[in-house]
Amino acid sequence: MDPYRDFARSPEPTLGVEWEICVIDPETRDLVPRAADVIDAVQQRYPGTHLEREFLQNTIELVTPVCTNTREAIDALQQDLAKVREVATEQDLKLWAGGGHPFTDFREQPLSPKITYEEIINRTQYWGQQMLLWGIHCHIGVSHEDKVWPIINAVMTKYPHLLAISASSPGWEGLDTGYASNRTMLYQQLPTAGMPYQFQNWDEWVGFMRDQKTSGVISHTGSMHFDVRPAAKWGTIEVRISDATSNLRELAAIVALTHCLVVHYDRMLEAGEELPTLQPWHVAENKWRGARYGLEAVVITSRETDERWVSEELVTLIDELLPTAKDLGCVEELKLAEEILERGAGYQRQRRILKQGGDWTDVVDNSCQEMIDLTW
Fold first, then answer.
1. DSSP string across 43-100
2. Phi/psi at 368 (5° precision)
3. Domain of 357?
4. Can you tell me the distance from the alpha carbon of 200 to that of 202, in angstroms, rounded to the nearest whole number?
5. Are 228 and 241 in contact (CB under 8 A)?
6. pLDDT at 219
7. Is the pLDDT at 356 greater than 90, yes or no?
8. In CATH, what number is assigned to the domain containing residue 96?
9. pTM above 0.85, yes or no
10. Distance CA 188, CA 170 (A)
11. What is the rounded average pLDDT of the residues 56-61?
């Protein structure tokens, strides 16, 4: 199998989810490099539990099996989260999740021992060292490689929607950055990260990846880390736009929205309909607006530069995706997105705590409690 040309076609619109959570010290509320201890203990006690070590030694990645819908995926994550919490509690650790920790010092957070991670840091230096960032990765099965780039280009028109509703990283090194998702702005500093190019077909992508191999880019980093990318080995499109949520309830909403969006565009292609696109400069502006303003963003909605509040756009999008959600069996999960609009996204809840006289440790405490309280 040619890893660049051959796409392992998925006959069904399957779903896989990766959710990154961290271990923290319950006294300082700072991140601690104890993830490997927790992972090893969980896997020894519960063999077969799929947990991955990540870029930093403070991070545990929970990974679902191949699922048919959001309910299956979140049920699997909930079971694994309970195992992780059981062991973490025994080791006097707390679990926390979000797009970015608000006050940890990146210089004190060690890398996991993996050669590609070390090469990324050696190559990217200061910017790579700051990657204390966590997100949601959704893999959606696609039946043919010819669909991949039309769908990705269409998904990018909804970039601020998927980001704004999940944004949870306003704090950095003890400061409010003014951004809803500081994670988004930091992550794109890596030379292999950021928005994908608007490839027109699979052959263009194959040529690009071979260029990256020839020029040595992939040998240094393992892969391209685009916000949305093909995962040819699995026959999926991997959507990596959203900040990590603090809890499973909001995770269910983001996953359902992402799954339905990709499947909706897939079905439009099957019906011979033209998928939406925006000029690259509009996509870039929308990404920035989503990161800066979150749910208060005004976003560009057409190639003619029409604009609308992203919160209004989300209401319309949820309604548009309901038939797809019904077919996938995730109507309840999709409608949880409306709950986020009412309660406020993660960044908004964090700022409320600060405005009420709390500090960043109170923000971390609240996020930890949300992981317990906002259950599936």
1. HHHSTT--EEE-SBTTEEEEE--SBSSHHHHHHHHHHHHHHHHHHHHHTT-EEE--SB
2. -60, -40
3. 15-373
4. 7
5. yes
6. 67
7. yes
8. 3.30.590.20
9. yes
10. 16
11. 91
The dihedral built from the CA positions of residue 234, 237, 241 and 247, taken in this order, carries a sign that is: negative
In a domain, 38, yes or no: yes
Confidence of residue 220 (pLDDT cuts 50, 70, 90): low
Amino acid at 231: A
Q: Are 181 and 168 in contact (CB under 8 A)?
A: yes
Q: For residue 329, is it within any domain?
A: yes
Please check whether residue 6 lies inside any domain of the structure.
Answer: no
Give tens-digit pLDDT for 173-204.
999 999 999 999 999 988 889 999 999 999 99
In a domain, 31, yes or no: yes
* E strand or H helix that includes residue 17: strand 15-24
Q: Which two tokens stand for residue 207?
A: 């040529």
Domain count within the chain: 1
The three-class DSSP label of residue 110 is coil
- 129-164 confidence digits (pLDDT tens): 777 899 999 999 999 999 999 999 999 999 999 999
Report the distance separating Cα 374 and Cα 343, nearest Å.
12
Q: Which residues does 215 contact at the CB level (< 8 Å), separation at least 6?
A: none
